[in-house]
Amino acid sequence: MISFLFQVFLLMFLGTITPSLGASQQEATPINAPSANTIVGAWEHTLSKNPQCKEIYIFRPDGTLTVLSGNRRFEDRYEINAQADERGRFKLTGITQVNTDGIDCAGRSRSYVGKPYTVYIQFEGHDKCNAYGRPGDTKESWSMRRITH
């Protein structure tokens, strides 16, 4: 006759049952939680002051970003931290390498080439995110919704 403990061990080994987890392990990040890679894809932002003009942000896995805003196009390089901070925000840094002439959705025409920037991205699931200008900000600077993966 097989002992009860051996049966439990065998069932755990075969994956039929799982051991009870402590509180710290149960509160671990869910498998489907957003990660830094969640940023990859195309996102849309609508400016509240100019709702008919939509900005498109296309983040690629190689660290390049294209922004389409008004009749302008921006080509940037970006990096995003692999881990979120204690607020669940990912630090994203970037620099504009190319921008075309014209007027963007905010009504600006100035050059951003060579200007670094930092924003803090907080995902709401996989299809919406908010960007904050500083890590401790409580009101987002803008939000985006995913349009493609």
Verbal overview:
- This protein is mainly β.
- The protein has one domain (about 30-149): Lipocalin (Beta Barrel), CATH 2.40.128.
- The protein has two helices and eight strands.
- The model is unreliable at about 1-30 (pLDDT under 50).
Shape: globular
Q: Biggest β-sheet, characterized?
A: 8 strands, antiparallel, barrel
Rg, please? 22 Å
Which CATH class?
A: Mainly Beta
Distance between the termini: 55 Å
> Which secondary-structure class do the elements indicate?
mainly beta
Order of helices and strands: HHEEEEEEEE
DSSP strand content: 35-45%
Number of strands: 8
CATH topology: Lipocalin
Mean pLDDT: 83
For the record, the CATH architecture stands as: Beta Barrel
The helix count comes to: 2
Number of domains: 1
Low-confidence runs of at least 5 consecutive residues: 1-29
